[in-house]
């Protein structure tokens, strides 16, 4: 594989302004989510996933928008007559230094409601605690409210009763107009603690709007500002109050007398954020000095606090943080202007390492036009179009390689999308002539024309889009490989498709879209009512992936719940019998196969042009539910189905054309599944190769897989910090079983070693001893120039990389898991050498013998924004032959001794890709107020 290592594609990271957990304490019934608000208006929804930290979705913002505070509100549980419990509904609210409060619809990925009142800009907001079950407040029907502090010194109330959001009234208004309400927390249901900008903390009784106590901090230090700003306040479980201010001090206040109990100089500058443990035994603070500090009570006197340690995990201010505990997890997530979330252990602080999550989105803001060698990238409301003129092999032939690489790329054009909303998705045709861009409120289409001369500027012309389609908006848009169909996801759950007509005779409008899209009905899943109506509601049915098969005859989608839906393109007969019969067969396959809201009859509308129609795949209901949310959904680029269906004797029982493409699905738990798309069944490779059989390097990584590319039967998977290759035409065997066979001790293995364990960590990094031992190994591949070009087909690549690693690491101290890993690699290499000596010599049809690599990995590239293909030169027949040769190699036993079957030479299609890195140091961040 030839790799263009690209860092010229810009992707500015947006600062983190606020972090909020839906539940500080995780229970077995309530789904917990982490919401991160950014300065560009984006809201990221993360699933802790027992320490895997999966970014499920992004609600994109817009121009001049900012998310400065996020608040989750959870309703009361409801017990049904059958004994089942409807978990209280979780709702997400935000402010952005305006007078408005916004509620967000997580399922549709857009704002649900706005509310505003006659007051100044809101600077802080908190949710009133719900009344305790059985209390007088609960009996009186009192509910939660949102309490906000404003820039003009007011405390205002917002009602969220009856699933609504309305401004209620101004509760308190201070006499001095220059006082700003900066932070807010609740000591009890009716007592609110507010940090202000005039060196004071005010305690209010919300029942009467009465000021209970004003606690002053005095004057700032010598040479400082006149007033102290209380940037953050928190309340402990015992009622005590903790404040962090602009002097860098942490102040603990007695919750009964409202007097100062202790003052700690925790930071060199302003304390911007605070978090506490659920039991009130720990306090965490973050400040402008980039420090994250931990405080705990002294063993001799529980009423006295001391700073245990402090660390600098961030490159900028620590502006926001939130704690999360439950199910063995105990962490604090912090963030700031450096745009990078950091997960810090709380209960095991000082014992476990922190973990830095990627500042890059999990959804890839890149696509390529392989035939035109174009790369399209987007962020906010801008689209950039780049071109790489020459293949990497040609660049390495000259003397000045670096200059050749520098001159090889060119920015052809920029597109600024009109409107307020940021781009949610984009898709470009393979030849680079069609480009579709989607926002939450509109879909835009462009026709791209590039002259014969590489230096000519790109001509961009807007294509007229039907008004019903343009104004619908989309969370995901995908163009078919043959550029004849456009599929998009509306409101997060609806799948629509429309036909694209190409008419070269029409000079004014050579490309047009049909005005009435087809609605593709999804299967209705058997989800219990108490699950569907509670918690996050229908958020799990939000579609995150949509893909076309290479022949453009199949569409597959996957949602957060792990359900896969497929549709096929069928030719319509005169009486529509073909289409209707296909839909009827689908409905009869499963009791739950009826559509959720739309019928297949929507596709039979007379206004839709004659020709092929989309109908649900007859065996779509047979797809199993994935164990976790999908992170990758991709069709193979070539006809792999028949080769992967081979039986033990090498025969094929079914080689029909309908099953020639393989559907790859990778989950957030790093489980890899391959399906026969139209049969809804796992392939033979998936049935024979469980997760625990895959190489340890793939199973042990903590970063999730972001994307995948195909090279024949090879799957190239990548995440933020790694690039892996698996050959799905080859069966894998777990290391322990292989070692037992080679030693003559049998093939049984320890089942405990097969399971992928997160370990004993609490959701951040691993224990400090293991973290040092598991440092990533950089695998050097021969045949490159400065690491720019990788050719994994070279015969000596594995041996050279192994020797280079031994030389580079010979002076390092080795112990623990790293030593075991190296010993295992040496053992594997020795076994391969012995097998090579003992195997029978034979030649292929060309008279040569070649070894096929079954997997490969490297940690050389990081952080990876995305990898996109540029060209592929193999024909479908060549790919099929290569896969068949690889799948037919098996070991056979004769007279109690293993005898290796001869390996025939097999070729794989050449693949050229552009790998885009966006290092953290290359991202512009706001200017820091202090330097240390």
From TrEMBL:
InterPro entries: UTP4, WD40/YVTN_repeat-like_dom_sf, WD40_repeat_dom_sf, WD40_rpt. Transmembrane segments: none annotated. Residues 895-907 have a biased composition (Polar residues). GO terms for cellular component: 90S preribosome; small-subunit processome; t-UTP complex. WD repeats lie at residues 264-295. Pfam families: WD40. Residues 576-616, 738-775, 798-853, 872-907 are annotated as: Disordered. SUPFAM superfamilies: WD40 repeat-like. GO terms for molecular function: RNA binding. Residues 588-605, 798-816 have a biased composition (Acidic residues). The keyword Iron does not apply. Keywords: WD repeat. SMART domains: WD40 (SM00320). The keyword Glycoprotein does not apply. GO terms for biological process: maturation of SSU-rRNA from tricistronic rRNA transcript (SSU-rRNA, 5.8S rRNA, LSU-rRNA). PANTHER family: U3 SMALL NUCLEOLAR RNA-ASSOCIATED PROTEIN 4 HOMOLOG. This is WD40-repeat-containing domain protein. It comes from Coniella lustricola. The lineage of its organism: Eukaryota, Fungi, Dikarya, Ascomycota, Pezizomycotina.
């Amino acid at each position: 594989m030839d790799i263009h290592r690209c860092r010229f594609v810009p992707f500015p990271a947006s600062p983190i302004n606020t972090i909020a957990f839906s539940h500080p304490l995780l229970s077995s019934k309530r789904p917990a989510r982490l919401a991160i608000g950014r300065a560009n208006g984006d809201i990221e929804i993360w699933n802790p996933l027992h320490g895997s930290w999966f970014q499920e979705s992004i609600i994109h913002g817009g121009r001049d928008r900012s998310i400065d505070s996020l608040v989750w509100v959870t309703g009361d549980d409801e017990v049904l007559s059958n004994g089942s419990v409807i978990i209280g509904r979780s709702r997400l609210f935000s402010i952005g230094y305006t007078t408005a409060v916004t509620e967000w619809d997580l399922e549709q990925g857009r704002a649900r409601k706005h509310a505003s009142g006659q007051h100044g800009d809101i600077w802080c907001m908190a949710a009133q605690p719900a009344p305790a079950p059985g209390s007088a407040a609960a009996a009186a029907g009192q509910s939660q409210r949102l309490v906000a502090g404003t820039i003009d010194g007011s405390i205002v109330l917002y009602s969220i009763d009856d699933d609504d959001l309305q401004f209620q009234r101004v509760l308190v208004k201070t006499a001095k107009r220059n006082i700003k309400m900066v932070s807010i927390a609740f000591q009890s249901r009716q007592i609110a603690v507010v940090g202000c900008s005039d060196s004071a903390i005010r305690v209010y009784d919300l029942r009467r709007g009465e000021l209970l106590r004003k606690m002053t901090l005095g004057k700032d230090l010598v040479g400082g500002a006149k007033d102290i700003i209380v940037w953050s306040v928190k309340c402990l479980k015992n009622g005590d109050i903790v404040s962090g201010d602009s002097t860098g001090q942490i102040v603990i206040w007695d919750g009964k007398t409202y007097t100062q109990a202790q003052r700690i100089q925790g930071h060199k500058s302003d304390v911007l954020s605070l978090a506490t443990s659920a039991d009130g035994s720990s306090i965490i603070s973050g400040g402008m000095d980039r420090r994250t500090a931990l405080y705990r009570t002294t063993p001799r006197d529980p009423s006295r606090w001391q700073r245990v340690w402090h660390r600098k995990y961030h490159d900028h201010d620590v502006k926001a943080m939130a704690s999360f505990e439950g199910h063995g997890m105990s962490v604090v997530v912090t963030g700031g202007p450096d745009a990078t979330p950091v997960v810090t252990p709380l209960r095991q602080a000082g014992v476990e390492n922190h973990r830095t999550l990627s500042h890059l989105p999990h959804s890839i803001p890149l696509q390529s036009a392989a035939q035109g060698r174009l790369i399209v990238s987007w962020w906010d409301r801008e689209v950039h179009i780049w071109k790489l003129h020459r293949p990497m092999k040609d660049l390495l032939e000259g003397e000045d390689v670096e200059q050749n690489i520098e001159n090889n790329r060119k920015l052809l054009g920029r597109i600024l999308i009109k409107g307020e909303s940021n781009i949610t998705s984009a898709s470009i045709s393979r030849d680079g002539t069609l480009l579709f861009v989607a926002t939450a409120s509109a879909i835009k289409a462009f026709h791209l024309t590039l002259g014969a001369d590489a230096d000519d500027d790109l001509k961009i012309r807007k294509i007229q889009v039907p008004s019903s389609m343009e104004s619908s908006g989309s969370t995901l848009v995908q163009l078919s490989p043959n550029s004849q169909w456009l599929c998009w996801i509306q409101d997060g759950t609806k799948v629509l498709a429309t036909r694209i007509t190409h008419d070269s005779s029409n000079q004014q409008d050579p490309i047009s879209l049909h005005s009435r899209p087809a609605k593709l009905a999804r299967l209705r899943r058997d989800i219990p009512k108490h699950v569907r109506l509670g918690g996050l509601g229908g958020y799990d049915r939000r579609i995150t992936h949509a893909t076309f098969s290479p022949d453009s005859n199949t569409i597959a989608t996957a949602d957060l719940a792990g359900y896969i839906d497929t549709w096929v393109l069928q030719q319509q007969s005169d009486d529509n019998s073909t289409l209707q019969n296909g839909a009827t067969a689908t409905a009869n396959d499963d009791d739950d196969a009826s559509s959720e809201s739309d019928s297949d009859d929507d596709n039979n509308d007379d206004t839709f042009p004659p020709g092929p129609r989309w109908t649900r795949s007859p065996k779509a209901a047979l797809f199993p539910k994935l164990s976790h949310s999908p992170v990758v959904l991709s069709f193979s680029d070539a006809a792999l189905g028949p080769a992967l269906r081979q039986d033990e004797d090498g025969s094929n029982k079914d080689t029909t054309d309908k099953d020639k493409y393989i559907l790859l699905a990778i989950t957030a738990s790093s489980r890899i599944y391959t399906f026969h798309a139209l049969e809804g069944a796992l392939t033979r490779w998936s049935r024979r190769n469980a997760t625990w059989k895959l190489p340890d390097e793939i199973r042990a990584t903590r970063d999730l897989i972001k994307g995948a590319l195909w090279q024949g039967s090879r799957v190239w998977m990548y995440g933020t910090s790694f690039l892996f290759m698996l050959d799905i035409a080859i069966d894998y065997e777990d290391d322990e079983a292989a070692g037992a066979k080679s030693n003559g001790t049998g093939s049984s293995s320890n089942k405990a070693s097969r399971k992928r364990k997160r370990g004993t960590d609490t959701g951040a990094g691993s224990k400090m001893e293991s973290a040092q031992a598991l440092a990533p190994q950089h695998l050097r591949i021969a045949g490159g120039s400065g690491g720019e070009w990788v050719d994994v087909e070279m015969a000596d690549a594995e041996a050279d990389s192994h020797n280079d690693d031994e030389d580079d690491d010979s002076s390092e101290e080795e112990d623990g898991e790293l030593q075991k890993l190296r010993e295992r690699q040496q053992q594997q290499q020795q076994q391969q050498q012995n097998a090579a000596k003992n195997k029978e010599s034979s030649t292929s049809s060309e008279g040569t013998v070649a070894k096929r690599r079954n997997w490969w990995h490297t940690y050389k590239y990081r952080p990876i924004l995305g990898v996109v293909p540029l060209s592929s030169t193999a024909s479908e027949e060549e790919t099929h032959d290569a896969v068949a040769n690889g799948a037919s190699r098996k070991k056979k036993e004769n007279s109690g001794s293993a005898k290796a079957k001869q390996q025939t030479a097999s070729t794989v299609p050449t693949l050229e890709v552009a790998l885009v890195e966006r290092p953290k140091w290359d991202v512009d961040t706001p200017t820091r107020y202090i330097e240390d």
